[in-house]
Amino acid sequence: MVSAAIACAFTYFLIYFIDYGFLSWQCLNRPIVVGPIIGLLLGDPLTGITMGASLEAIFMGISAIGGSIPSDCLSGTIIAVAYAILVGGDNAVATGLALAMTIGTVMASLNSVMMALWSGLAPFWENLAQECNPKKFFFINLVVFMIAILPSSVVIFFSVAYGVDGIQAGLAACPAWVTTGLSTAGTMMTSVGFGILLAMIWSADIAVFYFVGFILSKTLSISSLGIAVIGAAIAITYFFIERDIIAKSHASIEASQNNNEPTQKPANTEEEFF
Amino acid sequence: MSDKSINEKNKLEHQSNTDTALTKQEKKTLKSMFLWSHTVFMNFNMTKMQANGFTMTMSPAIQEIYKNDPGGMKEAYARHQAFFNTNAVPFNFIAGICYALEKQCKEGNVPGKTIDAIRASLMGPTAGMFDSLFFNCLRVIAAGIGIGLCTSGNILGTFIFIGMFGVLQSVTKWFLLKFGYTLGTSFIDKVFNSGLMTVATKAVSLLGLIMVGAMTATTVSFPLNWTIAVGEASVSVVDIFNSIYQDILSVILVLIMMGLIKKGHRPLQLIIGLLIFALLGAMIGIF
Does the model's ipTM exceed the 0.90 cut? Predict the structure, then answer.
């Protein structure tokens, strides 16, 4: 049991490390890939492959939208397939499939709490980046990234080795206000990033468009591509109106210069000006 | 006047010729950026999301451009540490544009603010477009084929899935990076030659503001759950704010954060402050 648990935890760590850190495909963490790997490691590749296919169908509709993942398919698949193979029998496969989504949800909320906590490092990254040493930046990123995956890997180890019930009991023992507070902080953290971004592009004469964007999305529920088209239309119109104003003011300056030098032709060159 | 315009036309032609064939240095930098662009999700966090991946992707370009300009290099690194979040594939398109813009920024043709605004305005729409293209279309097709094969116990399904959904992303990333770079170069040439950089910056900032507003609506939330008992009746605080405008609290939160940043507060103070605020709020039961 323990060696199987180590194998599962290690697989979790490695897939997370490679897929999120070095490929960013969000592909190797899918059940159809993870299932066969766990099956191979635990000595029953066929169950792994077929369960991977079933789980892929279950998790098909779930993908990360805006940074929040409703259910983590990587941990869900690992535990479901491990459970089915280690317990054995047809019933175990069905139970495993049923387990996957629950575990995925628990792990996804754990991951999002971790992500909220790790955002404490944001200022540290900012300072580190400004040291202008990309090798050092990458190396420290690598180390922190590996540390960041560890807690979830440990949870995977314990849930395979000592059963899922214990983990759920552990989570239930945690006072409700801690979990509520952390998840609330997670949803509010993004505002700091937006605050920094806004501070850079904010200027009073066009600031109202920030609220326009908010209303287009919140009240009219237009997709971001649609809002981009509306925004681009406004921006392009603004650009060409301003361009014409500048062209006219240049033309009038030119015209007054030409009046001083009557030998030159009147200014009909403003089309070539741009 | 006419001489000047001929000169400008020559310059334009010259530049568009160089656009089509990338120099050795540009190819080297683009290749390096392509390799780094696979670290999008490394140390993804809720405050800056993909900022670390973007910094690493931009590092070859910044190192090349600001080789002899430590001050500019520092500014460029700070610029690309700002909040960033999009699909991992058009990530490269924006990085390519930023490479072209940084080059002009070094020359003093493009203000740094334009780069901030272009990053901010492109990430929302590209994310929506490519999320639906890759997650809702390509992955569903690849998974459909893969599931068909894997259900009968054929491991080939897994490999087809990785090839169709995974490897294809990398291939697309490379082409989008190059496309972004050439597009960025020609765009700047046109705008810069017309002498309208300040107007263009303002127009792009306008678009950026709209997109950040839209992203605020979809990603920031202020999950207040607070009712005050006034005698017999109870008043929900959220409803009061929502009756002013729906979810106005998340806008207020972002604007407060911006105000604090502009006042010179450090992001760490804000993050820790928010964390304490959320925990205390949850303890006394307003969340």
Answer: no
> What residues of chain A lie within 8 A of the CB of B249, using their CB?
none
Percentage of residues of chain B with pLDDT beyond 90: 37
For residue A12 the two structure tokens come to 């979790």
**A51: nearest Cα among B143, B147, B165, B135:** B147
Cα A132 to Cα B68: distance, rounded to the nearest angstrom: 12
- Report the phi/psi class of residue B142: left, alpha or beta, with left for phi > 0 and alpha for psi in -120 to 50: alpha
- What distance in Å separates the CA atoms of residue B112 and residue B102, rounded to the nearest whole number? 8
pLDDT of A184 strictly over 50: yes
Tell me the whole-structure pTM to 2 decimals.
0.79
Length of chain A: 274
Query: What is the dihedral angle through the alpha carbons of B103, B106, B110, B115, rounded to the nearest 10 degrees?
Result: 70
Inspect the interface and report whether the beta carbons of A185 and B274 lie closer than 8 Å.
yes
Contact A97, A51 (CB under 8 A): yes
Nearest to B210 among A63, A134, A209 (CB): A209
Which SS3 state, helix, strand or coil, does residue A76 take? Answer: helix
Q: CA-CA distance, B224 to B228, in Å (whole number)? A: 12
Once rounded to an integer, what is the mean pLDDT over residues A13-20? 93
Cα(B178)–Cα(B126) distance, integer angstroms: 16
Report the gap between the CA of A208 and the closest CA in chain B (Å): 8
